[in-house]
Hints:
By secondary structure, the protein is α+β, with helices and mostly antiparallel strands. The chain contains nine helices and 20 strands.
Amino acid sequence: MALQTPLFRSHVALGAKMVEFAGWQMPLQYRDGVLKEHQVNRQGCSLFDCSHMGEFLIEGDPVACGLDRIVTQAIVAMPLFSCRYGMALNPSGGTLDDLIVYRLGKEKWMVVVNAANITSDRQHFLANLSSGTCFEDVSETTAKLDLQGPLSREVLVRLVPEAGQLAYYTCGEFSLLGERALISRTGYTGELGFELYYPAGKVQALWDEFLTDSRVRPTGLAVRDVLRIEMAYPLYGHELTGEISPVEAGLLAFVDWNKEFIGREALQERQRSDRRRIVHFVSASRRSPRQGHKIFSTEAEFVGEVVSGTFSPALNAGIGIGFVKKEFTEIGKNIIFGEAAGRESAVVTARPFYRRGSLKA
């Protein structure tokens, strides 16, 4: 049976269409529909329930306790109350998960992982952290709300004035409605935004308080996927899996080669040997690529497969992400996507697709 976040009843009361995602009952969209929710995020302020995500607390020196070896990103010299995106790899260089590491103290860390991978990630961390390291999985007791959009700062400072000073990819601990909240200037939409970690048993009051602001609208998974594809952000299970490496996914910027990490040697070998790479493309029409669609050269040669696709309201066109033979990733190259019943022309483009966001405003 699918799990429910603490806000399940609120989603139903707001008319959300509920679906199963990563083992959780989650709102796909609300009464206004996807196009309206997209407009709200790009112009106003969206409120997402992301309480399905996982959170691990770890205490210890990052090298001595083994945390530095588990993740690909550079964390040893991270400033206090900063955040960094990266990955945990398997010994073959595939991606176990993509994650964000938060430094909350000199030897205090929080790692945020994907909902579908909480159990496997917990096992991986416990197997690779040094004996005696303090590790706590606080996923069940931690709720997560994402406040995203160009007006999100104005909305947040009404309740937490000090949070308005947060710089991009930093975080802080604040008092919010009488409870301790960890708030970070991060997000998954390409807009100015904040992610709030809050006691699960108290999050209903915070959700309700945000929705008293007329500028805020609840937003579901459907538009969240559109927004992240417009930004070409990876989604685990699509652009990243246990078989897909950061090399193929174009994410080597989040790999620190100046340290040892699980999968390092295999990843170096895959830099030399992997034949496919990620590609981003825009349809010649409003027709949307879909996961599983084939990608062909203009000579109808099969060259790859779509892993994510959608109609982009921002571009008024279909956009897609896939993996293809390396020689078909050149910007401006013409390709074709679809199935035997119908195919559409497209052009390879740089990422992100959407470049007008308020991300670092």
